[in-house]
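User: ok so my PI wants both of these folded by tonight, can you help

Assistant: No problem, let's get them done. Here's the first:
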Amino acid sequence: MSKETEQVPLKQFTEQAYLDYSMYVILDRALPSLGDGLKPVQRRIIYAMSELGLNAAAKYKKSVRTVGNVIGQFHPHGDSAVYEAMVLLSQSFSTRYPLIDPQGNWGSIDDPKSFAAMRYTECRLSRYSQILLKELGQGTVDWVSNFDGTLLEPQMLPSKLPNLLLNGSMGIAIGMATDVPPHNLQEVVKACIKLLDHPKSTVEEICSIILGPDYPTGAEITTSKDEMLNIYKTGKGSIRMRSTYDIEKGEIVITSLPHQTSSSKILEQIAAQMDLKKLPMLVDIRDEGDEENPTRLVLVPKSNRVDKEALMNHLFATTDLQKNLRVNMNVIGLNGKPQVMDIRSLLKDWLKFRSQTVTRRLEHRLDWVMDRLHILEGLMIVYLNLDAVIKIIRNEENPKKSLQKKFKLSLIQVEAILEIRLRQLAKLEEVKIEEEQTTLEKEKKDLEKTLKSKSRLKTLIKKELKNDAEVHGDERKSLIVERAEATAFDDSELISSDPVTIILSKLGWIRAAKGHGVDVENMNYREGDKFLTSSTGRNNQNAVFFDSKGKAYTLPCHSLPSARGQGEPLTGRLNVESGETFLGVVSGNKEDKVILATDAGYGFIARLGEIETKNKSGKGVLKVQEDGKVLFPQKIKTDQDKIVAISNEGRMLVFNISELPELTKGKGNKIIGIPKERYKSGQEKLHSLVVISEGDELKLINGKRHFTVKEKDISNFEGSRGRRGSLLPKVFRKIDSVEVINLKEDIKIASEEG
């Protein structure tokens, strides 16, 4: 091994190599510079096009020519990467103020990457690009060698406006990223002038001028003022954008989309929901976009009764019609280091950059004026001694030294004289020289005054900012409107409200039949199984099941198996403790009330919404005593209903619903008086519990015999809650079950299996 070979530890080498690569990606590829708001590839594209003479007034030239120039002279990377960067700079829906004026197929808002190959497209620089290039040859920037050292390229473009904020920037580096949103030119210029006049202006004061980002697609910004202020204070956050829409002849017409959102993707998202039956109120969607109206998505509701605002609110929450756009104002500052900046610091630093640029421009102009005055001084000497000068030029072998010696001219003056043709030299006029000298002397004084005075320099910068704003400024495209947060439809809102009957068998099998008034007892059941209980409800409601331990379980009615078959066991869907059985089901609205009770004679009223649960293991609702039994839950129709409680000894008590408290869980209050000793010994228990309304009758069943308690006779058993109740006729003190018969509706409600 040669002694000259350098040896470095592998760890040190890899660390340094990774660091070098990281810094290269950060500084030379991914992050924009604060000064001109461009990444290196963008800067090189703009400069290469200016060198090719492709200004806003020039003829369009093939894009492949520009790409070739950029790759060959300044940016030795892939042609597709360079061309894609060109495309983004030209798309009016991607860049707020396009730097390139395109011709041909350069993509569409629906599919930004559908642009034609570079050999088919043409382009030139836009008028706006002049804010980056106009002062380029005026000593305003530093120049560096290109990648092979054969040419020079500008290290930065002398931007006359804060292009970084106007067009924004996106990029991903190693360990960091940038997302600077675009802004309105008029607002940014006003903010710059505000800072020039009042350097101590706060972020709050700046935000009163810069209301928020201004994206090229024109959708609404719904981010609140407080959120926006926090974004501009920290340089980080997210902007919420929402599509705009109109109502035309009962149809919803979407007219704008959030930034970087395509119509085709939106249509796919909505169509997917329609296929899944999640948008039953929508019958058709179509894209009517054209060249005049790039965004025009039409949604056709099922009828005029559809709440269009609620529908759009759902779509905002579930599709890209509303989108959150990240903000991370991470840029390469004037110190050459990446940093996250707040809006005030960013504008202050850019104004510092602009002040330096204008100073360098003025100094460059002053140097030129001084040089020209020096040459004019020499020309005046020539005019006064024209014949002698011509004679020296004609006859002397070294006229340069002779002229310097004879007329005491500088080398610069002599070279300027010798570069003039004799014909022009002979036509020199004293008046023209003096006029030019006077003009330049005045300009020199103005330049010197401006350079010495900070206030004059500020005034000049303000004037130029205002002039550029008049030329390139436009109205805001993204309106800022505070909106309520978008919420998706509940599953119940998306499901039809068709009537259903929930059927629970003795062995815990469940199914749902369409409609009410279903003959549930005579349906087909599995061998060894039979009907237990049922409840009527709607397809968009929940069914609440109760087990023998007092737990409640919830399943959506629309998810239950059809009654065309024998159903499914509840144990397959719910986590039930071993040995426990299901004994009741209730379905209805969340505000519906139900009575829960045990055979100990205790119970309470509960709202269905309070006892519903998403937990598959259920929710403890009713406290059951050891060896106690849960009675069938009874649904309450109205607050005027009455409760009928019957013990196994034939005591019946009737009292008003209002006497029983409303709880969410627990043992409840005493319904009928059963002595503790008699309950513990098993002698007396609460056998049946039903709810009756006005006009209802009771049918007491004992084997094959039955006894009907008429409405007029029910009052004989009325009393206060917790009383012992009155004895039924001796023959019907031992009953199997009780049925409530509504003579008006011909409905039977059983309290026990029958």
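One down. Here's the second:
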Amino acid sequence: MLELPKEFIAKYRRLLGKEADDFLASFQMEADNGFHLNPLKDLRQFASLKRQAPIPWNRENGRYGKIFGESVAFLSGVAYSQEPSAQFVARVVDAQPGEKILDLAAAPGGKSTQIAADMNNQGLLIANEISFSRAKILSENIERSGITNCIVTNHRPDELAEHFENYFDKILLDAPCSGEGMFRKDPQAIKYWHSDYSSECANRQKEILKSVLSMLRPNGQLIYSTCTFAPEEDEQIMAWLLDNYSELSLLKIRKKDGIEDGRPQWADGNRELKNTARLWPNKIKGEGHFVARLIKSKGKNQKNKVNQLRSNLSRNDSQNLQNTFKENQFDFPIKQIYRFGDYLYLFPENCPEISGLKVLRLGLQIGRLKNKRFLPTHSLALSSLGNKISQTYDLSDYEFRQFIHGDIITNLKGNFVKGWVLMTKQSNGIGIGRYSDKVIKNFYPKGLRKTIHDQPRS
């Protein structure tokens, strides 16, 4: 039985009145698990996942259930584990191809992967995380999802604000919060809760929002979310924004399937706060969330001064790379390639200048140069651009286990010529191999190799 702090119980009995019993009882129920399917991948051979119960507010791609971390669906980036109510946030963002979007506190990447899929890899997504260790996890999830239009950065909000004044069409702040909506999923989170915790978090959220607003272009949208029920971090933060930033107003959010209005009476009574959305664990099948969508009115002479990135390849490097691409039948645009050491990245169109930024991933890592040879990388295999590799090999179930383990693939089906091979499973890229002497040598990253176990039955 989950033991809630006495002050937590008293607080929500005071706030919720007759609704409190059902709300508090919901914490003794099992956590709801979910995942979302990735439309950037080929989903035709994953009908069993598509048939699982849909999440009402993400009906097209959201499903209830669990994804096994060693399954084809997970390792190919077809599916991403994400708590059901958290999937509502990206639906509110409503990302469109061609937009410039910032996900400010993006790790581990559930919302960023949804946003990039909605953008269909067109436009620019900057996924930022202040913690370097979490930013690395974010970058890995972006890679596995086959995302090509994303820059992963590692900065404080105020540092980013120095680079991107009036720049973004939309900014998502899934704010660091007291995490009350995580109590069922992670009971250890209860240990951090105390009566002043929400007020402490609210002060931190206000400081972050000051930097956020300077990065939002006129007519741009700010989407704010938390996984807490605390009014101090939800309606009261929105009331503070409306009081202190006259250029902001709250947009309505479409609510159905048990999603409710925010509660103005828990802040300053401003009825505009009803435009926010609350997901309660006793009223929906999920852990709970708060979401708000604001728009910044047009201002005068608020143009951004962000320069566009250009390739840093020398003329000699460009010519050598063109020759290498021609030999390997690749046709990547040289003008969009940026070199970090031996690694080559294909950066998004209209990409901003990155000088002064701590960048973990610049669009798509397509390969590396070794002794003047071009070696395609794992990232390329996981993206839709993996089809630029002219040879493919579809792995059997047994060969899939071999390949993920790092073994050479022998007893091949079909005819091949010496060169690179895109290794696939269920029509999706899973890694890179190289055919030579009647075998396919394994280029699956050593840090990702593992023994595949039998999937547990649900």
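The chain has three domains: 6-102+110-120+163-296, 310-346+358-388, 389-453. The first helix runs from residue 6 to 16. Good luck tonight!
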